[in-house]
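User: Last request for today: this protein with adenosine-5'-triphosphate, please.
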Amino acid sequence: MEKKAAPIDRNDCVICIRGLEKSFGELDVLKGVDLDLYQGENLVVLGRSGTGKSVLIKIISGLLKPDKGAVNVLGQQVDKLSSKDLQQLRLKIGFSFQNSALYDSMTVKENLEFPLVRNSKHLSRKEKDHAIEEVLDGVGLLQAINQMPSELSGGQRKRIGIARTLIMRPQIMLYDEPTAGLDPITSIDINNLINEVQEKYSTSSIIITHDLTCAKSTGDRIMMLLDGRFERQGTFEEVFQTDDERVRTFYNYNFTT
Ligand SMILES: Nc1ncnc2c1ncn2[C@@H]1O[C@H](COP(=O)(O)OP(=O)(O)OP(=O)(O)O)[C@@H](O)[C@H]1O
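Assistant: Here's the final one, the structure of the complex with adenosine-5'-triphosphate:
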């Protein structure tokens, strides 16, 4: 499916990062990262394994502290927040992890109810059921409501994982390798779902991947981490219009393996 132009508000920066540095001992992972995520935008972060993509996500979500630099999420300086305020902020961020992180002993319905029971105690039974059905319908899996995760395919589990995140109506979605471990056809389904989520819920998203098909079909803008910095950014075509050997190798590797 061709990526439709999304309504992006470039005056509204939901994540703003300036001069971010992070090292582990002798290992300098992020060496001065600047990033703006605009309201309504799908931003893809590309990079080889070990370039620091997950470290970046962990710093954005307050799980790791930066060594240097400013990380502002929805108007708040993440590393300066109390744990209570950080918890409140995290409710506005949806995390879609590689392994979908579903509870195997719970049905799909119970999995989706879990975040509501923890964070939306005021909702009635009827309101909870409505929210669950609405979000399952949104990811095209209403029929799976009473199934166990073990009865679902990898792609379906990924969808349920995304539904469980969406049920809290996050303003920001962070997708960590959304197509990892999925076959090419199922990957296309997930890419389409990421675009549908953007359209339907007006989310702003960071999509971390090294899958170039995913990058091309979901990204309004692509940023590529190279040696600890975003050295290339723009549309998919702009990022790869270069003689930089590191970028060429990354591109060729993706389409030949
Ligand atoms: N808590 C930590 N302590 C020490 N080193 C860490 C820690 N977290 C990450 N690293 C190191 O930082 C580097 C970047 O890791 P990161 O997980 O961000 O890579 P990545 O780009 O997400 O890779 P992949 O695509 O394989 O998931 C790696 O060398 C990793 O070993």
